[in-house]
Design a protein that fits this description.
heterodimer; A: about 325 residues; mainly alpha; ABC transporter involved in vitamin B12 uptake, BtuC; 14 helices; about 0% strand; globular; B: about 375 residues
């Protein structure tokens, strides 16, 4: 494989890892607070539809993003209502909301645009446009580093950079701020947080709202960055891959970055079967590459490569008074 | 919280949940500019209004009975098996391999062999998540989700690269031999009289050979096996030692271990039975309907099993009734997609809402109901 092909694959890795990273960080906040969320997929799908629809109508991608965050937020709050206020089963709530999202997005898109459940193709300001980083042009002649900077690091859409910036921000919030300390504590031992006079319910709702925000960005990137418009089931299991990445990352922000870029790299490779064949001299079937993130996650879950220990209070509703 | 009488908990909670799901769906239909009453009428006529409609509703219901029972058995051991979809697809692979292996002389022989294949392959696909849960403590919900995707990828690979006959374009196996075709309702004596075609003057229409012509429906003999499976699962859960152990383990793992019940054994048994039941679903769709293994053969029925089990309150009788309800919903939803401006995806929304209200917001539903019942005693939750 020559250097430029390698750069092309790295470039698509950035683009494919971004929605995974945003969704993975979304799941990180929720699960660290003790709320399991297998509804990342549904929230992303909802956000993708809202962004696609509103950006198409208004012609502005940023209004679309706001709508996407709003759509994901509604689903996040329903999940919060079911799992925090009514102490329901968090896993079942997540599954249910995924189905609702899968159906309602097509219903709304069809009612608005009558294009078989899609939103109209986005172009111009209704879509995210690439941002050229400074000196990309000037540095591209420098050997090795120049093309890497110009082709891989520069020239992505705003949400790609926001997603990568979200990693240190999440790390700082979770490990260096008072809110983060409390959030991690409420996921391990809510009773002790309660004893310290801090509201478990308020903390968990804030975590769920952050999840809605990040899922909103992930979905918005799907329909206005990676593709130009919403199509039915366009997230194609990315919410579950993000969930897998979260386990792979052992519920840590920097781990989330590495895991999602690994899975993004695998997705980028699956798009280029010719490259694999040239490098390895035999072909790997595309379904095997598609299944690889899931297989890797099962291996990690099985505890053969390190141990993935979820937050202790995850999945259990907190009962303040008996 | 007020404790509801038992009958209210068993009957009213699912019905109120269904009502709430129905109200929200009606609002959604209104919001997209269609008429909810017209929609309901279309669904009733299209799903239960004629023997032909029932032929489809019961076909779907058959699949949902199996997947609903699969979720139920796992639920009783407090295991949430979301992997029914993958287990059903792998079960379909078992059916296809059995049906294609021999030139079957009669469908009864083929059926028995295919049932073993379906159950074995379905159980095998549940075995790994079950083992990882039992021995390594890996969360079964996550592993079964992962196995759904791994299973789908495996089936695609096998259909495209291995099982597809030479010269065929679409990713599917060859057609099963004649002898492996299950009798559908229009092939079964007596039942088929419901499916006679009549001409304008009310006389049954005949073909050139002088035999009557029947309407073709997908419902087949698997329905009777599904009903039998409901009874067998009831027998297993409430009339056998293993069933008792499964339920005891599900109620309290600590107490069960203290009583000498092995958690590893019960987790494995419950999940293997669950996987086998999900796999058996493919008798209905792969062998009874399509006659070959297609991509994505389970078509979401594995997931609907979750809704069916929750709605049916984890009891085989409830599962039977809920499966027919969801069969109605599925067939009715398809009719909506064909005859009205409401997309077929409405049924996914209703399915999600039913799961949400019966499985996650059930405390809210109970709270609403509690307002109507005189408090008898307050219980410690």
């Amino acid at each position: 494989m020559d250097y430029s092909t390698f750069l092309q694959i790295l470039d698509s890795t950035f683009r494919l890892a971004t929605p995974l990273l945003l969704a993975c960080l979304a799941g990180l906040f929720s699960e660290r607070s003790g709320i399991f969320d297998i509804g990342l997929e549904g929230k992303m799908l909802m956000a993708a539809m809202c962004t696609g629809a509103v950006a198409a109508i208004s012609g502005s991608v940023w209004i679309g993003v706001l709508a996407g965050i709003g759509g994901a937020m509604i689903f996040a709050l329903i999940h919060g209502l079911a799992s925090i206020t009514f102490r329901g089963n968090q896993l079942i709530s997540g599954v249910a909301l995924n189905f609702v999202a899968s159906g309602i997005t097509v219903l709304v898109a069809q009612a608005l645009f009558r294009q078989g459940g899609r939103t109209p193709p986005l172009s111009g300001d209704a879509r995210f446009n690439p941002i050229e980083l400074p000196f990309a042009e000037a540095l591209s002649s420098v050997p090795i580093i120049g093309p890497l900077y110009a082709e891989v690091i520069s020239g992505h859409t705003a949400l790609v950079y926001i997603a990568i910036l979200a990693v240190p921000v999440s790390w700082w919030v979770l490990y260096r701020s008072r809110f983060g300390l409390r959030l991690r504590a409420v996921g391990e031992n809510p009773a002790s947080v309660d004893t310290a006079g801090i509201s478990v319910v308020r903390l968990r709702y804030s975590a769920v709202i952050i999840t809605g925000l990040l899922c909103g960005l992930a979905g918005a990137y799907m329909s206005a960055g990676l593709q130009a418009g919403f199509g039915r089931e366009m997230t194609a299991g990315r919410g579950y891959i993000a969930l897998a990445a979260l386990i792979f990352a052992k519920w840590r922000p920097w781990g989330a970055l590495y895991a999602t870029f690994l899975f993004g790299f695998l997705q980028a490779l699956a798009l280029r079967p010719d490259v694999i064949e040239r490098v390895l001299h035999f072909s790997i079937p595309t379904p095997a590459l598609d299944a690889l993130p899931y297989i890797l996650t099962v291996i990690v879950l099985a505890g053969f490569v390190g141990r993935a220990i979820p937050p202790r209070a995850g999945g259990e509703p907190y009962v303040k008074e008996r | 919280m007020t404790r509801l009488p038992r009958w209210a908990d068993l009957v009213l909670v699912p019905l109120i949940s269904l009502l709430l799901a129905g109200i929200i769906s009606a609002l959604v239909i209104l919001a997209i500019g269609e008429s909810p009453s017209e929609a309901l009428k279309t669904m009733v006529v299209g799903a239960v209004g004629s023997p032909y409609a029932w032929g489809y509703t019961l076909y779907y219901a058959t699949s949902f009975m199996f997947t609903g029972l699969a979720v139920t058995v796992a639920f009783h051991a407090s295991l949430f098996n979301i992997g029914g979809e993958g287990q059903a697809q792998l079960g379909g692979l078992g059916v296809a391999l059995v049906c294609l292996a021999l030139p079957w002389p009669h469908w009864t022989l083929a059926l028995m062999a295919a049932m073993i294949g379906a159950a074995l392959f379905g159980a095998a696909w549940a075995a790994v998540p079950a083992y990882l849960q039992a021995k390594r403590g890996s969360h079964i919900v996550i592993t079964t989700i992962m196995f759904n995707y791994i299973g789908a990828a495996l089936i695609i690979y096998l259909l495209v690269n291995v099982l597809r006959p030479a010269g065929q374009m679409d990713p599917a196996t060859a057609r099963f031999p004649e002898g492996a075709a299950l009798p559908q309702f229009h092939d079964i004596p007596f039942i088929r009289n419901l499916y006679l075609r009549y001409d304008g003057s009310g006389v049954a229409r005949l073909n050139a050979a002088g035999e009557p012509i029947y309407q073709q429906v997908p419902a087949n003999v698997t329905l009777f096996i599904a009903v039998l499976a409901c009874w067998l699962v009831w027998l297993l859960l409430w009339r056998t030692r293993t069933g008792y152990e499964i339920r005891a383990f599900g109620k309290s793992q600590q107490a069960a271990i203290y009583a000498g019940i092995s958690p590893v054994r019960i987790t494995m048994i419950a999940m293997l039975i669950s996987g086998a039941l999900a796999g058996l679903m493919s008798i209905n769709n792969v062998m009874g309907e399509s006659g070959r293994l297609l991509q994505n053969s389970a078509e979401g029925a594995g997931f609907i099993g979750i809704a069916v089990a929750l709605m049916g309150r984890n009891h085989p009788v409830g599962v039977f009734l809920a499966a027919i309800l969801f069969g109605f919903l599925y067939q009715g939803g398809a009719e909506l997609g064909l005859l009205t401006g409401i997309p077929i995806e409405l049924r996914t929304v209703v399915q999600g809402l039913v799961i949400l209200f019966t499985g996650a917001l059930d405390h809210m539903v109970r709270m609403i109901l509690g307002l109507f019942f005189r408090p008898r005693r307050t219980v410690v939750t």
